[in-house]
Amino acid sequence: MRHSTALQLRLSSIAILALTFVLWAQAQTCFTTADMDEPARTALQNAGKKYFDMVSRGDSASLKQNATPSLASDFSGVENAIKDNQSALAGTTGTPRPPFLLKVEGTAPLQRAEFLCGVFGPSGQTSNSAEFVIPNLAPGNYGIVIMDASGPTGPRTVSFVLEQHGTDWKTGGFYIKTPQIKGHDGNWFADKARDFKSKGQTVDAWFYYVEARELLVPVPFMYTQITDKLYDEMQSVRPADLPVSGNVVSLAGAGKTYTLTNIFPLPVGDDFDLVVKYQAADISDTARTFQENTAVMKALLTKFPQLRDAFEGIVARAVEPSGRDYGSMLPMKDIK
Question: What is the pTM of this model?
Answer without folding.
Answer: 0.87
